[in-house]
Structures are given as structure tokens and as C-alpha cells.
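== Sequence and structure of one protein ==
=== Format: two labelled lines per protein ===
==== Data for this protein ====
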Amino acid sequence: MNYINRIDTEYRRALQMRYGIIGDSVAIQEAINILEKVAPTDLPVLINGETGTGKEVFANALHSLSLRRKQPFVSVNCGAIPETLLEAELFGHEKGAFTSAVEQRVGFFESADNGTIFLDEIGEMPIITQVKLLRILESGEYSRLGSSKVNKVDVRIVAATNRNLAEEVQKKNFRQDLFYRLNTVNIILPPLRDHLEDIPLYVNYFGNNICEKNGDKFLGFSEESIELLKSMPWPGNIRELKNLVEKVATLEKGEFVNIQTIKKYLPRVAGGFNLESSNFTTALVPASKTQELVNSDTLILRTLLELKQDTTDIKRALGKVGAALHTISEDIELLKDHTVVNYTEHFNQTKNMTLAEMEKKMILDALAEYDNNKRRAAQALGISERTLFRKLKEYGES
């Protein structure tokens, strides 16, 4: 390797470690190459990738490496905001613009003025809102909801989606002109299953980070453990791997992780029930180690909503899951007094219900648990607030 190539390699490694963009695979390096070239510009960028592939990490890096880096970076999940509120949240509203608009409010675009706005799940944006977004892209102009006054904003737009927007255009779900404007530069992030060779880098990076935060020393995973991780499908991609590594490194503090240890935290085959082949992909932890203090209804619903099987398969899975622990990835809380959730009582109550009846019961129970706070209930259920509103409308409970 000559001097220039060595400097370039060292620069890239420093760049990756600083912003958390890790990977030596061809696909990741191609994405990094585009990022480096487009970051200093004001061009719109569309990031494509499955959930958990690191779209927001790339968006952050695009902003941090741009001339706008000292200005605001505003991240908006378009799929988490109800359609009826999205326009007001993005562009702001005047007092009295709608029933609950008791005061004037600045929108996300105005908050991001001179900086960067990241529109995640852009494919969820309603057509009527897409029209206003296109106007900002073309002229920087917008109007608050309830006002005819035209405002100007100088903002760079980075969007992300796990959908094929070209197909959404054909289905008339996404405006073709907006797609062309957003797709000026396209960064494609591969699913983890397509760059398994990067897993050792991720394991070391996430393991060292969490151990440093906890004041521990990360001793690493054995080669056999790494090979086992490489054999898994990882539907949750890098985020799923990150959660697993952080969990193992925290609970096995100060220990070198061998294959026997890692197997305790992976989906397992028990009594003929293969959690992995049944699309139950959340990693399990030993009952003697940890358990979240969450309502069992919430846990079961989260599982039901993620399983893409018919009613028969879901009931069979629930019948065999037994004492398996379903941990919510982002909010693991280590407990001194270890508690195990008992699914048996809940299953006996719901075993004669249809899937729709189970779903309705669990959604209503979650709302009761959180005093009808729909945002908190949706977060606990692992669904978007928009989905919750739609379900309640179906039940006649809105």
C-alpha cells in the first residue's frame, strides 16, 4: 500500500469510528464514498435501506461533514406522526388553525432553517403534504397551516425510506416529481445479510462502546461465536446485532464470550418450536439475568404485530413460547431482583380469541395502562401513532 492510499485508509477509518459508520465490505465502502462526495454540497439525498441498516447514522454524518454542521439538524419520523398532524408539525400552524391549535407553533422546517432536516420514512408522507414538500425543494417557500403568508426557509433535505419509491410512484402513492427531486443523490445501505463479513467489526465497535460506558473492559467474542453470528439472517439488521452485542457485553461483563455463552442469547429450538424459523427474531436472555417490567399484554401484542404468519401459526407459536422472554431492544433495564413474566395466565385468557380480538384487547389495555395517552401507548406497543389511530377508528373507539 502506497503512502496516499494508506492515508486515505486511515482517514476513512477515523471517519467511520467518529460517526459510527462501520464496514469494510464493498457495499458499505461505496455508500461511504458517495457520502464523502455529496456531504459538502446542498444537494438533496435519498437514503434507501431496510429498518436497522443505519439510515439516520448516515444522515447525521451528511450533516456533520457539511458546511451547515454548526446549524440545526432536525430529525423527523414521518411514519410516527398521524397524517392529520404531519403538515402542521412540518410547516407550523397559526393560532386557531384547527381545534387544538391554541397558540402559534413553529414547524420542523423553520426550526431547521440554515441547517439540515432528516425526513425518515418519507414513503409514509401523504400526497397532500408531498406537494408542500416539493414547493420547499423548488423555491424554499412554505406557508404555516392557517396562514396565507409565504415564508422562506434555507434548509438541506435528507430523506430515507425502506420502501421502493419507484414502485410507489407507479402505484400513485408517491409523486413522481418529488421522487426525482429527492433522488438527486441516492445512497443505498445493504441489509446485514449481504455484508456478513463486517460483523466482526460491528461486534468490536459496539462491545467496546457499551463496556466503556459501563466502566468495564470488553474482552471480545471467540471466532466460533462470530461464525455463528454470521450464520444468522438478521432481519433487524445492524440495530438487532447492536442490541445483542450490548446485551451480552453488559450481562457477561469481564468475560470472553465463547460459543456456549452466545447461544444462551440467541433464538433457540425447544419442544419443536424454532423461534427463528417462526419469524420470532428477538434474541432471548436467560431468565436468571434480566427481565423488563412491562405489561405482558404489551409483550404479546408486540410479538403478534411483528409475526407475519396467519392466525393458526401465531396461536401455535403463543402456545409453545412458554417462559420465553421478549425484551424490548431500546430500553433494556437490568434488575437486581430478577422477575420472570408468566405468559400462561394471559394465554389461557386469550386462547379462544381470534387474532383481531386479541389485537383489539391489547390495544385497549395499553391505552388504559397509559391513561389514554396514545403516543405512549403506541410506543409501548411498538407501532406508529398513525397505526394506533387507524386501529381505533376500525374499532369505533376514536
Notes: Residues 269-347 have pLDDT under 50 and may be disordered.
